[in-house]
Amino acid sequence: MDRKSIFLALFIFITIIFSLYFTLEENPITPPKPTAENKELPEEELEGVNFSVFNNQQNQELKLETEHLKNFKDEQRMELRPLEAEVYSTNSNQLLYTLSGDFAVYHSNDQYLEIRGNVLIESDRYQIEAEELDYYLNRNYLEGRGSVKITGSEFNSRAASFNSDLDLRNLKLKGDNGQAEVDFDEMSED
Description:
13% of the residues lie in helices and 53% in strands.
């Protein structure tokens, strides 16, 4: 081999080495990260949380407040302990009612709120007390169970369970024996 061929081969060899070096520096080889599909995702726990849920179908904003929140992202649910909530009209910004309970689970995909333990709903027209309440936000629909007591300025009722819209227009009460108690003594005469 002559000198030119040796220098040319050496030049090509050095060029290949440098190109490999700089290519590996730009895109280093890293092992693939394991997918989280088979593993349980970690819980996120937060304290002193306030957030809003907007219900565009009912033109309402549900402002939720809790001392302790557990957020399970893989299941799209949030556990709130205890729950304090205010529901406002998005049209008039008027407070429609308040909700409270010892424990709640908000299912964000279904816009569904489960409230358990010392449930209380208060509005300017009525007050509902129960042990359990299921609130379907999109339908503006309530289902309550456990020593239900519904009072207003013109009525007082007790039942084992009830279901209704939030305006109590379609209120259905059920007692343990199929009968519910409604006390009309307090109703005012027109």
